[in-house]
Specification:
319 residues; mainly alpha; f41 fragment of flagellin, N-terminal domain; two-stranded antiparallel ribbon; rod-shaped
Length: 319
């Protein structure tokens, strides 16, 4: 049987070959434009899976790094507030020492008591400090409202008692898959710590200042020697309160130091993951250019050869 290759068949083959070459040129052009080797999952299924996995890891690390930065800002603000509170308590201690050093006249005691009133007001502001995100630093899990408030006032309208209304639970922030850091503390344990070995009567910073102020004004009408002794006893209360505050400062400072190490590790992991994505997904532009030029040459040769083969003569119509 005499089989003939018709001109129509040759034309169809030429179009198919040209289309394949053109598609390959288009793909190479897209690789040059995007810088990516993997344009579709079919280009390299295993490579595509690796890229997706590494890209997801980069996303998780971005979240952890954001948490680290937020936690650092919160803790830095808290440490500053607590150091100010410690300095304030140091001032109160000096006032107590001055008031107990020797008998003072009523005017001198009143001046010292007025200073304590100012310290008490400032301490309340510090205890209700807010972080960079507007949350209260010492409200624990209930960080949306001021945790400390005056619950009783004396005859002069001055604070007589301060109570904590925040949460007993703190807030921790995830800074890695295995690690969390405490950021928002329950203020009751910071400014009104319960009794313990170092402070059998507790360490209530507010009450220590209230007691000192009242002793300076001698609201119990004690004899001079007993007033001095009572003022002197307030030094221990202030020391206990300051010790509690400084203990939290030390804990938060250690957390800040640890965050630096965590951030460095996360940045290293992130860099490695991004390099893997780049190595797997990225195109070698110089190689792509060479392939593009080769494909252009191949397309020209294919078109030229097709033109020669598809030349029609009278013989093509003879049987």
């Amino acid at each position: 049987m005499d089989l003939r290759i018709t001109s129509q068949f040759r034309t169809q083959q030429a179009i198919a070959n040209a289309r394949r070459a053109t598609d390959q040129l288009g793909k190479l052009e897209e690789q040059m434009g995007t810088g990516n080797r993997l344009l579709a999952p079919s280009d390299d299924p295993l490579g595509q899976v690796a890229v997706l996995s590494d890209s997801a890891q980069v996303g998780r690390i971005d979240t952890y790094l954001s948490n680290v930065h937020a936690a650092r800002a919160t803790l830095n603000t808290s440490v500053t507030a607590l150091r100010n509170a410690s300095d304030l308590l140091s001032q109160a201690k000096q006032i107590a020492i001055e008031g107990s050093a020797s008998p003072n006249d009523a005017n001198a005691y009143e001046a010292l008591a007025s200073q304590v009133d100012g310290l008490l007001s400032h301490l309340l502001d510090l205890a209700n400090s807010q972080g960079p995100d507007g949350q209260y630093l010492y409200g624990g899990a209930a960080a949306g409202a001021a945790p400390f408030a005056v619950t009783a006032r004396n005859a002069q309208g001055l604070p007589q008692a301060v109570a904590y209304s925040g949460s007993a639970q703190g807030v921790q922030t995830a800074v890695s898959a295995q690690q969390r850091v405490a950021t928002l503390y329950p203020g009751g344990g910071v400014f009104q710590a319960p009794p313990g070995p170092s402070a059998p009567a507790g360490a209530d910073a507010f009450q220590a200042l209230v007691n000192l102020r009242d002793d300076l004004r001698n609201t119990r009408h004690l004899p001079a020697d007993q007033q001095i002794a009572s003022i002197s006893s307030r030094i221990g209360e202030i020391d206990a309160a300051q010790g509690t505050v400084l203990g939290v400062v030390g804990e938060q400072s250690a957390s800040l130091q640890n965050l630096d190490a965590v951030e460095q590790r996360l940045q290293d992991f992130q860099l490695n993951a991004r390099e893997r994505v780049s190595n797997t997904q990225g195109a070698d532009i110089s190689t792509v250019l060479i392939n593009f030029q080769s494909q252009q040459n191949l397309l020209r040769m294919t078109l030229a050869a097709t033109a020669q083969i598809n030349q029609v003569s009278l013989l093509d119509f003879l049987h």
